[in-house]
Amino acid sequence: MGRLSAFVAAGFPQTTSHFGDDEHGENAGFNDLEWSTVREHAAKFQPFLKAKFPRYYEEMEGIAEGAQVELLDVVALNIRSEIAGSTFLARNWKSKQKPNLIILRVKPKGVPNMELPVFQTITEAGIIEKIGFNEHGVGCLLNGILLESKTKREALEKIEAVGLAGSSHILLGDSTGPTGLDCTSIGFAEIPADDQGRVVHANNLILKHEGVFEPLWLEDSPKRTARLTELATKELGDKASFEEILELFKDEQGFPASINRRQRGNNDSNTLFNVVYDVTERKGIISMGRPTEIEEQIQIGF
Fold first, then answer.
1. How far is CA 225 from CA 47, 71, 84, 230, in A?
2. pLDDT at position 213, please?
3. Per the UniProt record, which residue ranges are transmembrane (predicted)?
4. Is 113 helix (H, G, I), strand (E, B) or coil?
5. How does strand 273-278 pair with strand 119-124?
6. Which residues pair with 175 in a beta bridge?
7. How much helix, strand and coil, in percent to the nearest 5, is found in the chain?
8. What is the side-by-side strand order in the sheet with 273-278?
């Protein structure tokens, strides 16, 4: 069997699968902020974005014009992780985001002397790109701008050159395997695959970062990381398939704050969708709804 890169956050040496249990209410970072305050924070980023990333800024201008909304609102949507400072890998969203989900196939154009890869991504209306993979087999969960890279290493070099402005977890991978990025507002550290080829994570920083204090956002995050590590065995990796990897995300230990999450009681987030990407084969399946209550499955690929 070829090396399977199922983008969900853990991997294996023979069949490199990356499994990640990442549940979060997508607007969680804004829950305690008035929108006027969010806009004030976003305005501080505008000059930097316009100077350093004119193509993306122009794309946000186009979204604002087409949607007939103010540009600052679109900017705020696209940099909300930096404003919020939360630690997350956007995989599952609160159910109220369901009407805003879109799947895009993008062919970047208009960049002088550059031939950028075609990529496919699931994102939310107003956010230019997010969770997907490209025609070269480079996959990324969270920061879709990295999908314009031809290799995982190239994507890593882009992050090193530009830096980050908030806490998050970014999972990158190509046929060479997975790499997790533990990100803070002052830098990031790479999380290499373990001795079974896995990178497993949830909504909390895994590595130590000098000078950074990151309170635990969700108390169940370490428990979900431990549970997924337990489930993502070497034996599973040896025979990994889309169906078997999806099966991991049906787990309800610790329900409702489980890998397969349910909005109930004190738990305010619900699993909205699951992705399994085989970036080596350039194929993926997006399962809408909780993995035990799939409403629709969409196949993407090249």
1. 38, 38, 22, 9
2. 82
3. none
4. coil
5. unpaired
6. none
7. 30, 20, 45
8. 273-278, 283-288, 296-301
Please tell me the distance from the alpha carbon of residue 51 to that of residue 36, in angstroms, as a whole number.
24
C-alpha dihedral sign at 20, 257, 228, 247: negative
Q: What is the pLDDT of residue 84?
A: 56
165 compared with 295, residue with greater pLDDT: 295
Sign (positive or negative) of CA dihedral 217, 222, 223, 227: positive
- Mean pLDDT in residue range 205-215: 86
Encode pLDDT of 152-182 as tens digits.
999 999 988 888 777 888 888 887 888 899 9
Terminal-to-terminal C-alpha distance of the chain: 19
Alpha-carbon distance of 140 to 262, in angstroms, equals 25
| Alpha helices by DSSP H, 16-134 | 35-52, 54-67, 71-78, 80-84
* d(C-alpha 147, C-alpha 193), whole Å: 21
Q: What is the pLDDT of residue 52?
A: 85
Strand partners of residue 64: none
Cβ of 54: how many Cβ atoms within 10 Å? 10
Say how far apart CA 77 and CA 123 lie, in whole Å.
Answer: 12
CA distance 137 to 174: 6
Question: Helix 54-67 crosses helix 71-78 at what angle (to 10 degrees)?
Answer: 120
The tokens for 260 are: 């397969």
| Cα–Cα distances in angstroms (integers) from residue 160 to residues 106, 132, 134, 164, in the given order | 25, 21, 21, 9
Lowest mean pLDDT among 90-104, 130-144, 282-296: 90-104
2-29: average pLDDT = 38
Phi, then psi, of 75 in degrees rounded to 5: -60, -45
- Evaluate the omega torsion of the peptide bond into residue 215 and state whether it is cis, within 30 degrees of 0: no
Q: Mean pLDDT, to the nearest integer, of 87-112?
A: 67
Residue of 83, 102, 89, 104 lying closest to 41 (CA atoms)? 83
Note whether 104 and 123 are within 8 A (CB).
yes
